[in-house]
Amino acid sequence: MSFFDDLPEPPARLRSAQPALPEWAGPPSDELPGIVAVGDFVLRGPNAVVALKMVEVFSTGCLLDLVWSVRRSDESDQEWRDVMERTFQRPDRPGIMIGAALPDGRKAFSGRSAPSPFDDPDAVTGPVLVHRGGGGGSAGDEQAEGSARYWLWPLPEGGDLQLVAKWDDLGLPEGTVVIPGEPLARARSEVRGYWSE
């Protein structure tokens, strides 16, 4: 007989429903997305790049998966520390500016005040571009790199999506990458719910 055999059963607890997030706030938590492999540069300069790796397409919107890298040139140690400090700040303050142009002409900008989850969901018309995290690091004294993910709602339909970026601090003028509408639509048809056949 074990010492723990007579432990009383814990009391049953009430199950609480998971609160539903508004569609504009992020991807559904119960979907496997369709994937559009992009692998293209949005910005590219002599010492810095921003690239769009892929787009994860959900039923309501899409996650844009970006990476960036900055390499050291002839900066002094202090100048390089300043570059590193600027590159690790949250995107859009004041670093990389990210925007999206939908096929219908509407635009979304990251860094603008996103609606609150407590707002009336019917009052938010979109489009909304929300920073959904990322990270960064350095490979010593010669390079800094990072990633960032952005949620775009609603899912663009009926044409191409343009992702636009600009990084004034590093002297990278506005650049664009186009994600054709056909692969986005195809990826949307590949979305699968976790709990449905």
Key structural traits:
single chain, 197 residues, mainly beta, Immunoglobulin-like, 5-stranded antiparallel sheet, 4-stranded antiparallel sheet, globular
Structure notes:
- The chain has a five-stranded antiparallel β-sheet with strand order 2-3-4-8-7.
- It has one domain (32-113, 125-191): Immunoglobulin-like.
- It has 197 residues and is mainly beta.
- 10% of the residues lie in helices and 41% in strands.
List the helices and strands and how they pair.
Layout (H helix, E strand, L loop, with lengths): L30 E2 L1 E11 L3 E10 L4 E10 L5 H11 L9 E5 L5 E3 L18 E11 L4 E11 L7 E7 L4 E8 L1 H9 L2 E2 L4
Antiparallel strand pairs: 1-11, 2-3, 3-4, 4-8, 5-6, 5-9, 7-8, 9-10
Shape: globular
Can you give the helix content as a percent range?
10-25%
How much strand? 35-45%
User: How many strand elements?
Assistant: 11
- Termini Cα gap: 46 Å
Catalogue the unreliable spans.
none
Number of domains: 1
Annotated CATH architecture: Sandwich
If helices are DSSP runs of H or I spanning 4 or more residues, what is the number of helices? 2
Instruction: Give the H and E element order.
Output: EEEEHEEEEEEHE
The radius of gyration computed from the alpha-carbon positions, rounded to a whole number of angstroms, is 21 Å
User: Which class in CATH terms?
Assistant: Mainly Beta
Report the major sheet. 5 strands, antiparallel
Average pLDDT over all residues: 86
The largest beta-sheet arranges its strands as 2-3-4-8-7
